[in-house]
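Write out this protein's structure.
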Amino acid sequence: MLADLALCFLIFTANLVQTITGFAGTILVMPFAIMLKGADFSRSLFNLVGLLICIYIVVRERRSVEWRQLLFVVPVMVAGIAAGMLLYARIHPRWLLNLYGAFILAVALFNLYSKRRIELSRTGGAVALFAAGIVHAMFVSGGPLLALYVLVAVKGGAGIRATLCAIFTVTNFGMACQHWAAGYLTPELWRMLAYSIPAMCLGGWAGGMIFKRVDQKTFLRLSYMLLIVTSLYIFASNLM
C-alpha cells in the first residue's frame, strides 16, 4: 500500500514537470519507481502515464504543434527505440541503473552549467534523435536528448512543449504496443494506472497553473539540481 502511494506521488511529480516543460518529468522520478516496482513494471506504467498526459497537451495545444517536424523526428526515434529495446534485453539491471545514473548526471550538469546553446546540424540532430530513441526505450526518458533538437528546430515555449508532446504521443503509443506484446501490461499495472488517475490529473492541472505563472528558467534550474541528487542516490544505492 505504501509503495502504491509513493508511486502515485512520483506520477504526480512527473506530470507536474512534464506539463511545465514538455520533458524531464519521467527522468526525474524513474530511478525511484524502478527501486519500488522494478524496471519492467515502472517503464510500462510511466510510458502509459506519459502517453495520457501528452495526448491531453496535444489536444489542447494542437495549433502550436510543428507537425512537419514529426515527419523527420519520428522515424529516426523509432529506429533508436528498436535499438534500445535490444540493448535493454541484454544489459544486467545493475549496469542499467549505473548507465542511467551517468546519463542523468551528464544531462543535468550540462544544462545547469553550460552557458551556450547547442546548434545542431541535420546530421547532428539525427544522431541526437537516434540516441533519444535508445534512452527512451530503456528508461522512458528520452526527453532531454530530444529537446536538444527541438529547442533549435522549433520556436516559442508553447510550440516546443506541444511538439515534444506530439512526438512522445507517437513513440509512447508504439512502446505501449510492444509492452503489451511482451506481457508487461498486467492486471496489477492497469490497477495501478487506475489508482493514479487523480495524481495524474492533479499534477497536470498544477503544472498548467505553474506554466502560466512561473519563470521556466528558474524551475528548470531547480529540476536539474534535483536530477544531480537523484543520480548520486542511484550510484550510492548500487554500492549497498
